[in-house]
Amino acid sequence: MTLPEPVAVGVEALYEDDDLLVLCKPSGLLCVPGRGPDKQDCLSARAQQRWPGALIVHRLDQATSGLVLMARHIDAQRRLSHAFAERQVHKRYQAVVQGLLGTADGNWSEIDLPIAADWERRPLRVIDHAVGKPSLTRWRALAHDAAAQTTRIELEPITGRTHQLRVHLAAIGHPILGDALYADAATLAQAPRLLLHASHLAFAHPTTREQVALEWAADF
């Protein structure tokens, strides 16, 4: 039996020019196609329908919403990919986590724990001090909800490991609400989706070298 092609709906661009796009990815949408006909609808496919030739530069987890940078041509992709590799792209996220974490005084703290693949439970990641890769996350508390026993936090990943923010927060005992991979059942049930959102993106434009800084507020 031949399955019908998935019907792709539009994708919103927060910024666009001849060199790049900054797109608003909803939670639940893949960044690139997955395996199987049911996983072909994705951010890159939707973008290429509207902007032919658009190229992926980086990705967000399927469950994470937020800003995604794409290139309009191969030279811009090369320059932007280099900027990511050299940690010249500034990213911040917002999340809501289980428990009352920190104090909302504006000060940043760090989670410095090495992350490795959990080969027996792929695609999960684990903290592994023997073979894990160095992984660093900065965070600060924004607000506490004493009734719900949750904390809204801002996150800044210094390194870019797979599932880094989710693994780090779970490792310190404050998993993200709605996290189907790293939260316990009660924390998972507290939200209809993963409450993790890429809210801020700043980088040097690959052609003009002017600074581009964009914000998209979380809807949770």
Structure overview:
By secondary structure, this protein is α+β, with helices and mostly antiparallel strands. The chain has helices at 43-50, 74-85, 164-171, 185-188; strands spanning 12-16, 20-25, 55-56, 65-71, 90-98, 109-112, 115-117, 125-127, 136-145, 150-157, 196-204, 211-215. The chain contains four helices and twelve strands; from the N terminus they run ββαββαββββββααββ. The strands form two sheets. Strands 1, 2, 3, 4, 5, 6, 9, 10, 11 and 12 form a ten-stranded mixed beta sheet that branches. The longest helix is centred in the middle third of the chain and has 12 residues, at 74-85. Mean pLDDT is 94; it is low at 1-8. InterPro entries: PsdUridine_synth_cat_dom_sf, PsdUridine_synth_RluA-like_CS, PsdUridine_synth_RsuA/RluA, RluA_PseudoU_synthase. It comes from Acidovorax benzenivorans.
